[in-house]
Protein: Voltage-gated potassium channel
Amino acid sequence: MWPTRSQLYTCLEQADSSPIARWLDYSLTSLIILNVIAVVLASEAAIYQRFAQAFNYFELFSVLVFTIEYVLRVWLSPQSPQKKYQSALWGRLRYLITPMAVIDLLAILPFYLGTMFGVTDLRILRSLRLLRVFKLTRHSQSIALFIKVLQQEAENLISAILVFCVLILLAAASMHFVEGEQQPEEFGSVLRALWWSTVTLATIGYGDVVPLTPLGKLLASFIIITGVAIAALPTAILASGFMNELIHRRNIFRMEVIQALEQDHLKFADLRHLEHLRLKIGISHADARLIFEEVKQTAWLQTHLNCPHCHQALMIRHPVGQIHLSASEPLAEP
Structure:
């Protein structure tokens, strides 16, 4: 029996939905990694000449698989739970311009362009084929997390980069003023001094250009110290963004665990839902286990009932697995 479109969509988009979906996800991920390795190896002329036929067959096979995947994703896009993609025509057109659809297209486009227009420059084709590494974004939670943090911290990163660029320009202008006459080839203009100021503020310091005058050395020392502080800003912003996003995801998982433990016992459907959520938001097994144990120790349940003898209102407040009874009012003597 052929699978339905809904089943195919679930298999492609939800890697943990079934063993077949997991196998497909692992296979596509492995094929992408092998493609990147093949492009790197083929850039060495001796290796490519020796295994040219194997590289060509592997390229044909990869393009065939990626083309089928691309066509299937476009065809199945109306099965998406998002309403904007559910239209047969406009939904597919909207899907075609999504970032992941564009990446899927770029993964196969170099082959067809090279075949149609007879591009013979292998360096161009190989460079374009390396775009296939971005397909890992769909299959890797780590890359997806990194992209999301970049999106969330975009404003802060842009601000830090702008500050960095301004300091580069000021450093170049200062060194041109101080060292311009002494070293006209390296600091004869602000434009020429930009190279030195960039590598110095970035704390790289190749040493190909150095100041010679005492004032230039003093100024360079100040620029180097400033560069250490400024160059660390993007790293600190990204690190903070990663921590905030991970804390947010753990809190989401913690709330789901609390809701699941509010029942008398965990059902298989609850465990399956928690595992699906863990995979979806990228929580590790260790984090999930730690959150589960923390919730079990700290979560308290409240149950309200009436005493079967005196019909007095009672409240049961207890952690999971324990029950302590306390009467709202002192129990009346029978």
Q: What stands out?
A: Residues 326-334 have pLDDT under 50 and may be disordered. The CA atoms of residues 265 and 320 lie 9 Å apart. The chain has 15 helices and three strands. The chain has three domains: 5-139, 140-298, 300-334.
